[in-house]
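Fold sample X.
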Amino acid sequence: MASSAPQRHYRAPCPGCGAPVEFRSAQSAYAVCPYCHSTVVRSGDVLRRLGTMAEVFDDHSPLQLGASGRIALPGQDSLQPFTLIGRLQYQGEQGRWTEWIALLPDGTSGTLSEDNGAYVFSLPVADGLALPPAHALQLGQAQTVDGQAFTVAALLQAQLVAAEGELPALPPLGQPFDIAELRAPDGTLLSIDYASVPAQAQRGLAVRLEDLQLTGLKDASVREEVARQFDCPNCGAPVAVQLEASKSCTCPSCHSLIDLTAGIGGELRHAEQDEPIRPLIPLGSLGQFEGASWQVVGFQHRTGVEPGDDEHFGWEEYLLYQRERGFVFLVDASDGWSLVRPTTGAPTYKNGTPRASYLGRQYRLTSTYRAETNYVAGEFYWPVQRGQVTSNSDFEAVDGKGLLSREQSPGEVTWSHGRRLDSSAVAAAFKMDARAGLFRRQDAGPVAGLGGAGAGIGCGTLVLIFIVLVVLLILMSNCSGSSGGGYRSSGGSWGGYTSGGGHK
């Protein structure tokens, strides 16, 4: 394993408490004492105490220090072993994320970035690479770095809030610094950290935990699952938060939307929600998708309006969680159901054009609109606010085999991709076959699912259907001139406020 790397390990007593502090990587300049949380820096064979590091919060991640796995690295013919030796936790405007330091066999290190269940494995770029300054970047613009074309996907400010283990570099604790995320069509993510001069960058690709052959993970069967509990700041009823990564939740009694970004011990802000909407799929339900069991942890209703139109359409989104795969969105729109997730790379697209391409597939623009969040329930890994507004564009694959969506919010552009699901398959996934009729949308017409029964329809029935259709068309032509219906027809936006990469 990676622990057999040729460099010698270095161990010395902590200058704070005297406990042993170990350095396994020659690149590690800092470490956090596991006993007194002192931050120490190594200078030759001497450790110097810099202060006390805040204790890391439990984010319910299956990863932990000492876990090991195997990764396919560029230029390597075989999988390379690695061991997790350090952890950094950051806070940004849209939530927290974790970065794990991974020790490789040659003594160098990479980063396994954990972003609310999505993962990216990155390596430092070569020294001397010309990186654009932060002030020269604009959200959504094309940017070429080292001969590769990227799109600026995020411009954020973040700060280090906690760390443990060995660390090759250490930004000042609690001091904000700029971060830029650039995404390429092939899925490459380039993260630029402006905390130091010159700026540092890492290049990475999305990975799935189940593909990393990980061992030494937390044992979910014995790990204590204790919900965070507090009294609702609006009605005083007890509220329990199941996921540590949640940044907002709703009160089960008064349906108020509660902001958790300041922590349970901080001041809880809330917003009252009128006319609660009952989800078709109850929160907490388990559904089978992509060979795994996903739990419904959040629900939101959103509306949109196209430029120059005064009629709104609506759709609903279910946030699904799976421990090793993270989060996906199950979208319920008027034309059917979709299962979608944020992309790591950025599709090839130029603002204002009707075409986009992603992973070799061509997409055409179907709608552009302003989206707003109207009602939420459950827990969310980003700080949901009633009235949140984004600018959205939806695309559909030319071959009809995929969906693509672009969502822009302050500081971030998020692309998501997915596929349509048959309504009966969604009902079956949640073992709600007895209520399958409630799941039908425009993708399942009146005679859909009847098998060969349609062959028995007589001429009189067909004439009657034709007359009904003619009458409906006449009635529709006499209605308002708006072409939009009561609900959207392209599948919705896919959640927003999530980057799917190493930063948020």
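Fold sample Y, listed below.
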Amino acid sequence: MSMTSSLRPQLEQVRRAWRASPLPRFFAWWGAELGALLPAGLRARFGGGAAWHLLERVDADWRLRRDGSSEALAQWSDELDASTQQAALADGLRGVDREDLRLALCLPAAQVLRRPLLLPAAARDTLRQVGAFEMDRQTPFRPEQVRYDIRETGAPAPAGRIAAELVAVPRTTLDPLLGRLGQLGIAVDAVDLGVGAGRSGVNLLPPEQAPRRARPRQRLNLALAAAIVVLLGLVLGEWLHNRREALDQMQAQVETMRGEAQKVGALRQQLQETAGAAGFLAERKKNTSSALAVLQDLSQRLPLTAWLERLSVDNTGQVGFQGQSPQAARLVDALKDSTVISNPNFQGTIQADPQTGKERFYMVAQLRKKTPPKPARAGAAPAASSGDKP
């Protein structure tokens, strides 16, 4: 109990901050819009919400009506026994969900003292303490002589101040009514002031006399809220799991594509090297004479009395050939006009072969590079044939 009392100011501060924020209006609008989408039967079944009913003392009778309506739902005499009065009250509340039912004792305006106040904005969190302090100044009563409440009205106020209203009723007026209701076994949730067909919104009921209500729907709502939180956590976990799996698959695909890209790069490099080598060979073949051309040229220029025993052409274009001839020294003159090789000369000494009676020689030369034909000049006239007349 002491813990609840110590936490009451903080809870009241939270409630006031909640009511002053735009969130209640937003959720009320949102709930109404969502409720409008439901069928009428479901709206009637799950609508819920506090259903306030006002209990008034009129002379020696009790009168019950719905908050906001002036039509009486039930009326009975206070001289009846307790069970009959409870039955009359229950008959007036027939069809009302007991968990949503809220019953307020509504006092006439003539029995209640009301005083408007302008308070500093800092007093918003301690209105009840401020009300006790202002009681001596605003009313002829002391705080212990009255049941009072103070509420913020929301009326225009100067900067830094708030508009409030102090509502008080003498205990000599209220306590007998509460005592009589206690004898009848009727518990009220609030004591308020009647304003037109409704109520002002204050609560003059002492906190220690507030009824304790079992709220199974609230427990169900809490269980549903916990289930929603658990399901939301599971959904988020599943979403994260799916995202992680998708990321792993993407990373595996990226690794596969990276390996394929490396293979493609290696193939491209190999293709470039092969194309370069092929181009080099083609260019070399284009610019140099073949061994067959060298052999043909040597066959045409060497005398018939000479023959070759060996012919070689290396990668540098050097030609080496070995053979026999009756007069080997004259071979240099026979080859100096060759269009295929250049710089023919002997390597080593010329030696006589005792078997053939000829001179054995070994010569080296260098392949000539082919000179590409010069392109014809544009506009040049073709050469005139010998038969053409000038």
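Sample Y note: Residues 16-47 form one domain.
Also: The chain is about 40% helix and 25% strand.
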